[in-house]
Structures are given as C-alpha cells and as structure tokens.
Amino acid sequence: MIQSMTLAERIGQLNLVNPGDQPLTGSVANVDVRRSVTEGRVGMMFGIGSIERRREIQNLCVRETRLGIPMLFASDVIHGYRTALPLPIAMACTWNLELIERSAHLAATEARADGIDLTFAPMVDVTRDPRWGRLAEGAGESPVLGAMIAAAMVRGFQGSVDGSQLTGADRMLACVKHFVGYGAGDGGREYAAANLGPHELHETHLPPFLAAIDAGVAAVMPGFNTIDRVPVTADARLLTTLLRDQWKFAGAVISDYTAINELQSHGMGDLAAVSARAINAGVDVDMVGQGFVSTLERSVEAGLVDESTIDRACRAVLRMKFMAGLFDDPFRSLDVERAAKVIGCDSHRKEAREMASQSFVLLRNQNGVLPLPTTGRIALIGPLADDRTNLPGTWSFSARGEDCISLLEGLREVGGDRITIETACGCNLVDDPVMARRLNLFGETVTINDRTSDDMIAEAIEVATRCDTVVMAIGEAKEHSGECSSRTDLNLSDGQRELIAALRTTGKPIVLVIFAGRPLVLTDIVDQVDAILYVWYGGSLAGPAIADVLLGRREPTGRLTMSFPRSVGQIPVHHDQLPTGRPLPPNTTFEKFKSCYLDEINDPLFVFGFGLTYTEFVFDPPTIDRSVIDAAETAKVSITVRNVGRRDGVAVVQLYWNDSVAEVSRPRWQLQTFERINIERGGSRTVTFSVRAEDFAYVRANSIADVKWQWDAGEIILGVGSSVEKLTNVTLRLVRAPQ
To answer: Which residues are catalytic?
Structure first.
C-alpha cells in the first residue's frame, strides 16, 4: 500500500488530531479537521464526542478520500470507560494480577463498543513522589510489581501477545506511556526534567516498559521530560538504539500532546527543525502539533529527513490499523445498537463493585472497630458522604456522575432497615475559592458551602452525639490528582482536620473513609481516630463497595504499593532505597553524624506492602531447600501462613531480597515476587517461591545504551513476610560452577 501513496499521504498517516469534541487534555485543539481528512492528511483522531460522530468521520475516510484508508480512533481509556473502575493506583493495591487484567479487558470491551480502537494506556511510570498528581494513573513505587501490572494491563487491553485477538469486539490497541522516567520529575511537578543515571533508569524506570513490550503492546508514548538533558521526544538513544534496536520493538511511537512543538521551548530550533529531529529520533506519530504534516515534505526535499524514515513511520501506523481489523471492516466497532447493550451494562457494574472492594486498604483498626455492627445508628459526616461527581476519579471523561452510587446510597443499600444513618456535611472539601476554580476545570466537582465552618461543625457534633459510630467521608477532590495536579501540601485540608478534632470530643468511635488519588500525609490525625479505610477513588460503584467492607460483607484485602510519608520533607521515601554508609541504628530516632532528620524519623508512616485485615495471620519462619546454588540450579523458599483469626481472609505473601556483595550499591530491600492467597479461618497454606541465580541480576551501565545485567557470587538475604517491615530472613549463597 505504501508504494501507492504520495509522500503527502504517507505523512498524513502520521498526523493525530483532536477536534475538541471532549474536554481537552492539552492546551489546543485542531481546526478545519474535515478538510484535512478528505485530503488524506489525518491518520488518527481522538477526542471525538460520540459513536455517531465517529461513524460520520469513518464514512468520510473510506468513501471520500483517494485511497479509502480507514481512520483509527483513540482515547484515554485509563480505568474503565462508562463504567468507571478504581484508579490504577487503587487497582495496583489489590495485588491481584488476574483482576487487574480483567479491569483492562472490561474497559476495552466498553471502549471498543463505542468505536475506540486505541487507548493511551497503561501508564507504567514508577514514582516515589506523592506530590506528583499523575501517580494516580500508575502502579506505585516498585518496578517489579509495576512490570507485572504493565504486562497484565496490556494482556487485558489487547489479548494474546501476537495481537490475533485485536480484531474482536472486546479488545483494543494499547499505547504504554510515558517512556521513560516521567514519574521522577523535579519537585514532583508535571512536565519537569528527570535527572536519572543509567543504573537508576534501567533498574527502576524501564522494567515496566520492557514488560509491556514483551506482552505485545502496540505503541509507546515518550514522556514530556528530559533524560540527561535530552528531551525524550528527540532522544534517539532511547527511541531507536534502546527501544527498536536492542528491545526489537516493532510498533508505533506516538508523541504526547504537542510534545514535538514543545521541543522549541527546549531551544532545539523552529517547528521544522524539531519535527525533523523527532522523526529521525524515532517518533512515528505527531499528536495534535501538526508539525509533521506541515513541515516534513520540505524536510525530505532538503535532505534533512530520509524518505525511508517516513515510510517506516507510515508502516507502523498502517500496521496498527491492520491489527485492529479496520481494513477488513472499518465500521466493525461503530455499531450503535451494540454500544447501547454493552456500555455500562449490569454485569460490568457488578464487576466494578468487586474490583473496588479489593482495592481499599485498611490502615488502622483500633479495638476492632471495623467491621461495623449491622444494626444501630451511624453518623455519616463529611463533604464526600453523598458525593457522586468525584467518584469516577481523575481521567474519566467517559464516565457520568449520575451513574455513580454515593457512599450514603451504598450504606443504605447494604445496611437496609437495620441501620439508621444520619448525615451532616461538617466542612468543605476545600475552603479556598481559587483552588475550587482550579479543581472545577472539567466541570463542577467542588462547591463551597454558604454556611460558616462553626455552623457545619456544630451540626456534625449534634448528629454524632445521637449515633453509635461516626463514619467520616473526607479526602481530596478527584481533580486534586491527575495530570498537572501536583501538590506541595499533602495534608488533609484545615477544615477537615478541624472537623476530626471536633468530633473526637464526642467520644464516639471515628472511622475515616479517605478518598484520594495519592498517598496523603496522615501523621497528625492517625492517632485521633479509631479506623482508617483508604478507598482512593473507586469508580462508579465505590459507594456500595465501601459499604460492603465497612459492614463486613467483604474483607479488606488491599496492600499499599506506595509508602505513605510522615511529612512532605521525607519525600522520596520508598522501600527500595539505597543504603548509606552511616545508617541509623535500629530503634533509634536520632544520632549525630548518622543519616537521619533532626525533626522526624526516617521511616514512612505506612510502608510498602502494608494493609490490615479483619482476621489475623501468623507467618511461620521460612525455610529454604538448599542454601547454595549455581547458575543452573533452583532454590525453593517456603513459608506457612496460618489464619488464627475469626474470619476468612486474604494474605499477600511477599518475597524481598538484599544483595550483600555487589559492584554497585544495592537497595536495602527489593521486591522479588509475591503470592496472594485465600485462607479460611483456622486454616493454613504453604507458599513456595522458586528462585534462580539470574533472578538476582542487577545493572552495570556505562550509558543509556551500553548496559549489561549481571549477578555475582556471594550471599543473598531473602526476606519473606506480610510487608517490607515484617520480614523473616533466610540466606542463599550464589556460586559460579567450575568451568
């Protein structure tokens, strides 16, 4: 087909436009799109508001353009579609790879039914900075868990690794993002530079991308950031040498929103110069900026871009269209009747409820306050108690607030007539009108009550006094997290903290239900309340899912995938930090000339892997079947977990490792693998992990592209337990077999 296309038509396939039908995810929209389409100068589109509009555009492509090449429609399908699912950071906390894969499949089923062929997901950026709002789209701080989740998401979206399932009505192309290091921006700010050496890049930030590529992901999106002062969008070391030459990636590289144009702000020349630089570096598709379509013909004529480079990029786009089955039937996914049956259907909502309930993390439960009694009076207090508009969470343009079920509605449904619920707002989510306007950019989700703070608190105290237990629904607004929602203050708002302090005077048990898209700083309030259930943003069915857990119909099974800092000043704080030559002695908060703070302890408030349950597990000492292995041998680490509590439950058995002899400094603990197991009350299960010497390889790097992985003979410490702070160790020695 490429041979029959003019140069202008080939370049046109590289042009991804947004006519602005939906809320913009960047600062501009494209104009005069219809004319560009009929001239064959558009290959992909996103931001289209309806399936009817997509049918109209597809009809234009196949019937009124010279070659009849179908349009490929894209969208940000991040965590569900019409049926909003828990935020990706919340889904990660399930530690349930099968469920995570199913969440992507469910999202693909609804989106494809609405005519969407490609999603700009999964986002697999590893981050250790909760100031960065976009962490809501990712899996947290572990590259190991992040890689497993990346592969699961790609499988869910696309199906089989070979792409053979992509022509089906329930699969869609995936574009993994943001390659690479985007979650490590300076100061936790969006679009900021990342200062990463090759060791950190390859061990921490690249593994999830490689996992996505091994799973067959169709496309890769470079980040806005720089690496070693080179913008990734123009970095041939990453996009060609590493991605294509070394990793053998054969898919498409799609720029982020106007990222090519923004190379001009980095001082790399005018639009023609940066467009040439981007495509020569390895970018195939220009999102919204239209630098390719407006300058590349002249750059080819001037010898700045080789025509074979245009062909490579065009071939990548056409390949995606073939994979999606668009050449077989351009209207296959544009069936209005099927869309009405599939999108938001009852079976999807049932699954969404289960996914949400597994994502919640129980952080505190003094004296077994939870689960709540199934009879009595509950004071449901807080600005998010009866809120629907925030429940879908950030980056959920296709979800609708009216489809969501609030916490109040969920408690009434689950509790029935046995529970009396009284409500009060108690405080505003935010009190600052300027902040409220910023949070309401995509529609009003935050309102400021006309009543005074004293009036609202007084009403809340009155309601609480009449009830047995106080459940507080507080946290962030949904747009506190997401793109360009970086924060320097991670505390709950002053109004919410004042409300907690006031309700504490009633003497009633207080259960915090915290809605958020990031780890918040809870240090000052954790001891003021009896229980904390961290529910993130759980999607359309969050309300009944929360009620299921609060009232004991479901167990809390979530475990943290990001450490919770005690203060912003600790950031970054994470489980796999490098050691120091002057470590603080155990059980010590301060010692001069040791690595510590004057005003805070080193450890996070809640560690990676942490999460309470309604039952109690005992982890017996682990055993290892052999203490010495060489490259050809396998060791098996086993541990028995006993449920000694009164309820069935889920344990997440986690295996970590520490390398005591290496050529470079190694993390104090690094996740190796895990297993999520169900154990009935009074029962036990034994988990066995198999490890090989190659599992303990680490990076030796001279540059981004000059990298090797190696393991050394010596001692490996293996820690097994329920979280990174509760490990029991065994020792394994690696040896080189005689040559």
So the answer is: 256
